[in-house]
Amino acid sequence: MKRQNLRTAALILCIFSYLLVGAAVFDALESEAESGRKRLLEQKRGELRRKYRFSADDYRELERLVLQAEPHRAGRQWKFAGSFYFAITVITTIGYGHAAPGTDAGKVFCMFYAILGIPLTLVMFQSLGERMNTVVRLLLKKIKKCLGMRTTHVSMENMVLVGFLSCMGTLCIGAAAFSYFEGWTFFHAYYYCFITLTTIGFGDFVALQKNEALQKKPPYVAFSFMYILVGLTVIGAFLNLVVLRFLTMNSEDERRDAEERASLRRARNNIHLKPKEESPASAAAVPSFCTCLCYRPQVCGSPAPSHPETLSCHTNPVYYNSISYKIDEVSLSTRGQTGSSPGSTLSSSSPRCRQHPRLRRKSI
Amino acid sequence: MKRQNLRTAALILCIFSYLLVGAAVFDALESEAESGRKRLLEQKRGELRRKYRFSADDYRELERLVLQAEPHRAGRQWKFAGSFYFAITVITTIGYGHAAPGTDAGKVFCMFYAILGIPLTLVMFQSLGERMNTVVRLLLKKIKKCLGMRTTHVSMENMVLVGFLSCMGTLCIGAAAFSYFEGWTFFHAYYYCFITLTTIGFGDFVALQKNEALQKKPPYVAFSFMYILVGLTVIGAFLNLVVLRFLTMNSEDERRDAEERASLRRARNNIHLKPKEESPASAAAVPSFCTCLCYRPQVCGSPAPSHPETLSCHTNPVYYNSISYKIDEVSLSTRGQTGSSPGSTLSSSSPRCRQHPRLRRKSI
């Protein structure tokens, strides 16, 4: 079975299993508490109904009123500040739902607003996140230099650690701030920040909904907006570092397959293969055979560079150091001097690629 | 200013402007209606309070009860079916909030569940989406062949059109189904599908919340789950086709810059440049100079292939046809025969790259 199909099938199976496990655990954790809360609420409601002797219709009307009035209790949701807050929740896909368009025109505009805004925002966060990673990488290098360390090379592990600590730091700062301003416990504020910055946005905890903060506390409003946007950038930077490469795995494999087919066709039509010199496997900095095949064939014939990050990789200048790429050192340098046209570099390596299927990138 | 920094700054400016415009429009569309609704609700609440003569405390208690009882009205939310539904909303980041963990243990598990589940789900949807695009591409090719068209080549525009129609079709099918099962208007059901499949998930409209559907209508529950997962795949396929390439723009430019610096260093240290033959610019199928520099230097010296998609591009086998890559035809074939080591292909082209800065990829 083709690699891409196998990978996709495995991922689907993973997700379904993950959902099943999650459902079972949430059931175990929440189901009993839900029953308890329901019993208590029914008991209290019964007491109030007996005290005031509501008619069934009036009680239903009261329920409807309370539910509809709920957003209004938090103050004006659709003045400029509230609308800006709402617009943020749309284009970042957080979507708390604390406010949602009540008019049909608002719903239509919301949909068009999201169609353009969401991709634009995705690209912006990834772009800014990548810049952030570059700055962090340079800083780490300078720090290592100042500390007089043996090597100033910034590894993937260094970057992942700093990224992870940044995410935790961002969550903790937010938790401290919102627990102070909103009167939540630190844990609930942390949970709110987590649910917000992962863009899940349940809406069970929503900032700026107490004491008409949207209209009366502009500095707090500005802080909340900046926190969400900066926090999403930090998360975006971490995702750019760790996850983005996996999003293009299938496409890369398709491209490599297509290039192999093309080069085989060219080899059959045009190229006469010449014997190549064999030389020992190069150092760990040399990327996988198939990465080399696609991205840096000329490297394979040249000495390993002293600064690996200058051979920046697929999606990230230190990509080749990532865990998914620390695989077999490959006798890439066996390609050595190819002599004739550059085209032969690709085509002449293809039979070797066929002979060594186990040298293809180990991926998910 | 460096290209990546300029691009990032432009994107940030774009987003802030977009938010300001959105806020102004939502304010204009919703603010007045909000005032109207608030007045009406206060009036009706006043009538009920006068009729039953609630004390202030009792009324607040009643409000609290109604709000807390609201999820329970929709049936058991945390039995297995409800928990599975909730788990879907977590890992897809839809996050309706119709149900949210009530216990602290549930909140903690929810966070860990999301940390692993969200990236896994992202990768799965992109992987499956890419497979879907590949199948569609093959089908389109077969259809063109059957129709006896002059060329069976599937362009990016074809793919984008089919992708867009698939998204619209998915939304319409969902709208028809949910308007039937939930008793919503077609427009509201369409709005619900849109808000769900963009993972915004306000929670103003949530399926499976009427008539205890989660427990009593297993086929409808299964349909809803499958609709969400398949719908997200279709959206994911469209994003994979259109947006994914833009997520790695900065990283690619960084890598190219690093490779240029590395090749210049090598050129200064090792390589003697030889004069190159000039030949006319090749056809539109040849990608940008800088893409070629990084991915397929050997192509530059070889004749343009008859089937461009075999030279599959960065993230997608027909990438090079994308709008962002239809740029200047470049005299890439001027690199021609390089003779010596493959390394010279890269280094010898760098001075030309310097001479033609306007030939760099036009990107956002």
From TrEMBL, chains A, B:
- What are its GO cellular component terms? plasma membrane
Keywords of the record: Ion channel, Ion transport, Membrane, Potassium, Potassium channel, Potassium transport, Transmembrane, Transmembrane helix, Transport
Q: Where is the Potassium channel domain?
A: 76-132, 169-243
Q: Pfam families this protein is in? A: Ion_trans_2 (PF07885)
Quote the subcellular location field of this record.
Membrane
Q: Which GO terms describe its biological process?
A: stabilization of membrane potential
Q: What is its membrane topology?
A: Multi-pass membrane protein
Which GO terms of the molecular function aspect are on file? outward rectifier potassium channel activity; potassium ion leak channel activity
Region (Disordered), start-end ranges? 333-364
Q: Which InterPro entries match?
A: 2pore_dom_K_chnl (IPR003280), 2pore_dom_K_chnl_TASK (IPR003092), K_chnl_dom (IPR013099), TASK5 (IPR008073)
Q: Where is the composition biased (Basic residues)?
A: 353-364
Q: Compositional bias (Low complexity) spans?
A: 338-351
Transmembrane region positions?
A: 6-29, 80-99, 105-125, 159-181, 187-208, 220-247
Signal peptide: which range, if any?
Answer: none
Instruction: Please list the coiled coil stretches.
Output: none
Task: Look up the domain of life of the source.
Answer: Eukaryota
Q: Which SUPFAM superfamilies match?
A: Voltage-gated potassium channels
Tell me the protein family, please: Belongs to the two pore domain potassium channel (TC 1.A.1.8) family.
Q: What is the designated name of this protein?
A: Potassium two pore domain channel subfamily K member 15
Native source species: Catharus ustulatus (Russet-backed thrush)
Please name the gene that encodes this protein.
KCNK15
